[in-house]
Design a protein that fits this description.
A hairpin with a 5-residue loop joins strand 7 and strand 8. The protein has 12 helices and 16 strands. Helix content is 36%, strand content 19%. It is of the alpha/beta class and 404 residues long. The protein has a 7-stranded parallel β-sheet, sandwiched between helices. It has a 3-stranded mixed β-sheet with strand order 10-12-14. It has a single domain, classed as 3-Layer(aba) Sandwich (Rossmann fold), CATH 3.40.50. It binds nicotinamide-adenine-dinucleotide. The site of nicotinamide-adenine-dinucleotide (NAD) has 26 residues, from helix 2, helix 6, strand 5 and strand 10.
Amino acid sequence: MTNAKVRKKIIVLGGDGFCGWPTSLRLSGLGHEVIIIDNLSRRRIDEECGTNSLTPIQSIDVRLRAWEEVSGNRIRFYRIDIAEEYDRLLSAIREEKPDVIIHFAEQRSAPYSMKSSLLKRYTVNNNIKATHHVLCAIVESGLDIHLIHLGTMGVYGYGSAGIRIPEGYLDIEVKTDNGDRVNQQILYPTNPGSIYHMTKSLDQLLFHYYNKNDRLRITDLHQGIVWGTNTPETQADERLINRFDYDGDYGTVLNRFLMQGAVGHPITVHGTGGQTRAFIHIQDTVRCLELAVDHPPELGERVLIMNQMTETRRVIDLAQVVSRLTGSEIAFVPNPRKEAAENELHVDNSHFISKGLVPVTLNEGLMMEVSEIAKKYAYRTDYSKIPAMSTWTKEQRPGNVHPL
Ligand code: NAD
């Protein structure tokens, strides 16, 4: 398959994960040369938490062999911890000389990042070092590499105070010492809601600095909550199936609801369900990455920030749709997060729309597809892992100490 407009060499950091795997397959299928770097920590965390993907994901070796058989395309793999093995990361970059590096390789669960002091420190150490090492290695390699990072809508905080959240930068008017009013554009002030979101806020400053100081080309994608599981590529063979997290820590909200409905478990809404969140289907995640690869910022251009989401929904509204589709009742449980009970959220996503994204919206057909997958693999469910066990503050649950 060689229908890519310009064939690029692309390193996908975190390419064994929920978003990284289908993205790697898509880019490889388009004719790009793809190399995955991953330390397989997500699989280790499953073992540590006694959880597993609902879908039977295969080892990385089996996955890559299956892809080669199915597509004729080879994806190579390096097992490197990019937060702890800087020299190996640098060597891989020097050796491969990629045009693009896509950076998915961070600990991405907010509840997991709040579980204990150990996991707060792990999340900060892993995510900040990972991002900084990539930036440092690109500079040290001397190569002109386009870095694309997966950030989160969560850096904006929950809620938009009546404004449409812009794509990373905010227009402000300030009063100078002599009383003049001048207009400026600043990075949208971050308001992270968890340690995980805080690492993504700190990532933004690292990008800002390296872009300014070393003229790195950087695209930072502020992604909404991903739902869905399959793409055409992951459906091509059972061995290519994507991961499906349903547990209270890593399961994303709509996938959790769809899975709960499919196995006849009550749909667990945190608090009133009045929280409004931004969503994107996994097929659009993959499409956005394809568009980001095709549209790098110019050399010397500031960090290109794009909101990678397609719609906003209230959690309770989603729960009601899933309840209607599956017949499961809704159960209201205490909200473990420290946040307002309700919020509104308006988001600008015109960058991706202007580049050709035609959003997959929350349609019942696709929701039923996820539900069917959940039903198919329901026998793999560990019901004890469905509830969210993490809490944000000590007051919420005194004595909540993670066993590690
Ligand atoms: P994931 O946990 O499934 O995948 C992350 C991958 O990175 C895993 O395979 C893990 O083993 C690897 N990794 C982590 N630390 C590493 C390290 N130090 N060295 C090498 N590999 C490492 O997560 P995901 O859902 O695919 O998310 C990918 C990115 O997208 C994350 O950065 C996340 O913050 C962002 N994001 C995800 C969502 C979502 O809903 N899933 C929403 C917004 C943003």
